[in-house]
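Researcher: Going back to the complex we discussed earlier. I've cleaned up the inputs and rechecked each line, so this should be the final set. Can you rerun the prediction on the complete assembly and write out the structure?
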Amino acid sequence: MVSNLAVAILNGIVWGLIMALIALGLNMIFGLLHIINMAHGALYMLGAVVAWYVIELTGNFWIGLMVAPLCVGFIGLIIERGLIRTIEDKPIITIICTFGLMLAVQQLVLMIFGGSPRRISPPIAYRFPLFELQYPAMRIMIALISIAMMIGLWIFLRKTKYGLWMRAVVQDREMAVALGIPVTKVYMWTFVLGSALAAFSGVLAAPIVSVEFMMGREVLIMAFIIVIVGGMGNLEGSVIAAIMISLIQGVGALFVPPSIATVFALAFMIIVLLFRPQGLFGE
Amino acid sequence: MFIQKGKSFGFILIFILILLLLTALPFFVDLFYQTFLTELFVWILFAISFDLIFGYTGLLSFGQALFFGLGGYTVTILIRKFGLNTELSLFLSIIIPILFAWFVGFFSVKLTGIHFVIITIIFAIIGNIIGDTWTSFTGGADGLTFSPPPFRLGLFQIDLTDIKGNYYFVLAIVAISFLFLRRMIQSPLGKIFISIRENEERARLIGYNVQRYKLIAFIIAGGLSGLAGGLYSLTLKYASAGYLHWSVSGHAVVYTIVGGMGTLVGPAIGVGIVMSLEHYLINFLQATDLVVGIALVFMVLVAPKGLVGLIQSIFKKGETSA
Amino acid sequence: METKKTKKKVEGILKKEISRRDFIKTTALGAAGLSLSSWAPVPFTYGAQPPIKIGMLNEYTVFATEYGYWLGKVGRTAIAKINAEGGIAGRKLELHEYDTKANPAWSASMCRKMILEDKVDLIMGSIHSGVHLACFPLIKQYKIPLFSGGSMTYEFTGKDSLSLHGGYYIRNHSHARSQAVAAWKFGFNNLGKKWTFLNADYAWGHSLAREFGSRVRAAGGKTQDIFAPPATQDFIPFLQKVDPDTEVLFTAFLGSAGLGVLRQTVEVGLHKRLQRFTVICTTEGIGQEVVGKESIGAYYIEYHPRHLDQLPKELHPYEIAYRKACGVDKEGKEVGNPKVTIAGSHMYSMWIYPYMIKLGIEQSGWKDSKKNMDLIKAICSLKLKAGPWCPVGDLVMREEDHQGFNDFYISRVEPDLKLKILEIIPKEKAMYEPETDLRKIV
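Model: Rerun complete. Updated structure for the full complex:
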């Protein structure tokens, strides 16, 4: 039992860190542009699909991990410039627009990539013993990469000019405009960064899950839940919430059937929404 | 005041004309188009019930699938497992979703904007998970079939396995529901809904209990969505947990946006256009969702008020230039 | 494939075999057709006879698309081949094909479109039980035969058949019960007595756990059931629940979850202390190289081998021709597209149906929907011999429940990622007493 609990906790943290990356992208876009990007899961999937092609060509996981976010970031640029820009002041309309985008992207990938799941082999096959079970080292590495990415993001937001601008726009848009911050540019780069993050986490998750055109659908809902529990616009909150929810799910699954565990997690969400709509960790 | 009356007279005239046309139609079109239209009517009911909550009250609810599915299951399970008659089952397919809508709405209307969207999605997901897992009762993702006994109303008796009978049955219920919704929207209650959509703060300052009216709108929309679900399973003689999936609400969103939200007529037109488009596209292209997705993005960008809004703005331009 | 030990009922069925002359005639015809291959220009004129319209439903988008792709391709090829050979009773076959979107309600609409607008005579396809269930009220009302592409719900040919579909549902392939009847003993005798089922938490996963589990328990074994959501991505929380003394881990998931569970079992090292056993459905159309070397050592129940050389020698000529027509190479990959693996254990159903329909029409003198039940009865009393149209070996249809039986195969994934056949289980061992009798329908 102790060993099961240890595995559940370790796994919960690892999975939580991957989810945190996805949720961070979603939350950055929300915090700044105030739009809920329903296509975020599709971008996550797109990242994994692009990486699959790159890895097929080059045989190298790391190149895939570099290239896919760039490509998807570029697609994010097109989406922001072409679609979001014109409707960014109507939050409900953007939900519907990105919902349509999600449908279209999924179908396009199905037509090009095909429907059967593909695999990205883990770059590290080593497993280490953990009580009577084993645990894949790959997952630990994925967790470490996620942490590195988050630290990088934090430094970017705290120490660079763009990061400063972003935070300024989040706090007070009018004031930011008055101070001469190029707000539309900040919007654009935030959306690009958010899309690239979704793609990045898609590539990271791909060796654990499989690459498939529907892989973003369940993840999208999970990411929403994390963003809300952590607090919309609160990036640190998202990370904590992601790990917390993954832990609850992982440990909960030890004791009750998974579907019941999910229902409880969702009921918990409703309570958070009702009593702390700003999120558990919001001000 | 006079203009209002003239407008509503014109509406009634057009409404009766369309109804007459639809009543006569089964004598001219073959069976397939009758079933196609029957299904179209059901989705119109679903879309206009969504329009009440989204178009008129301004609440984007992705939870309508929950009530649609509940209505579908109410009819299916009551007839199949409890041997109830069709009349009572269909009646309960309004009542049971209303009770659930009361419960869900009680919590949901406390929230606004995106939080409301999310909480309704969550309720729908919970419903879907329960429907998927409780297979002994719901049949899960595979679903349940049943054969409905004839619908009796006084001396009338309608055989729902007969295509024409089913057609008139659904047409009558949807037409009555449409009139009911239209009447309600023109009533003081409807005006309050619209005032909440336009400016919630002001509605509150005037002295309306905004949450209470939101809840009323949510319950009515839930009941009608349930009725749509009940009619849908009566038409298909089948219900499954898939009815409860939040993406079913996405249908209503698509129809309403394409047609024009907050108009009632718009969503009905939206259903006609999108379903006909799908019907013809499916002959050349498997991926109809691709077209639906692109159409949705296109409409949002070009005509966020939908086709009805587009037509209205053209007319208005004509008026001002004249 | 001796039938000595089988029950009387089974023998009764086998006695009514098609005559030897018929067999030779059809085989010769089939061989001639195959040599023409599908590109040959249609050498026949069909005269004024209206075409026979066949509707086809498959999962082309949304879910289980790796199945839909192949069932569709094989169905199309088979119909083209029948047409190239002169159609059926001088009439051409006309195909009307739709996507189910893996959505039963949508499929019911498409089914109605086929019946009422396209006016199809017969419908075939789909591996989705829900899709078939949603179509049942329609096929029952309009008396249209529905040929199952690959749905595994045992109840569809069980005791409620008559009330479900009125006898208009025909299935020439296996399902959860026949799989269990055929294969549980192999697992019990060779792999272990203590089983854990880690299955998808919906009807299919539950019925496999029930059918296999009840037999294992009846024989004195022990079972543990774990159910996980059908779209589970991370299996570690479930794998750690597996009892420490479990000897056989039976898993049932579709698509990427099917891949994930096999791979992650190895990632946590479970493969060292237990044997993995599963139905081919879990990685059908995916290919072991996609699962990776983590699948080495896993046991599969196949309904028709993926690799040509694993098939009994006497079936090779038919199988080669069938694969050539459908664009499949000898390792079970699509010709010119080695990344695409066949759904070999399912798609053959779509190859055989058009032929069964042809024989059925010829024997019953069917002209239009008035004689649909006669056609179904003719089809369901067919005892197909191995041949170009029946590359899976002999296939017996059972009149009582419209269920077909052919041989099963137990295979293991070898270090070269090939599915090597260890044992062939003759169809007689998959048979169970029919639970219904549809012969009395008029």
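Model: Worth noting: The longest strand of chain C covers residues 52-58.
Researcher: Good, that matches what I expected from the previous run.
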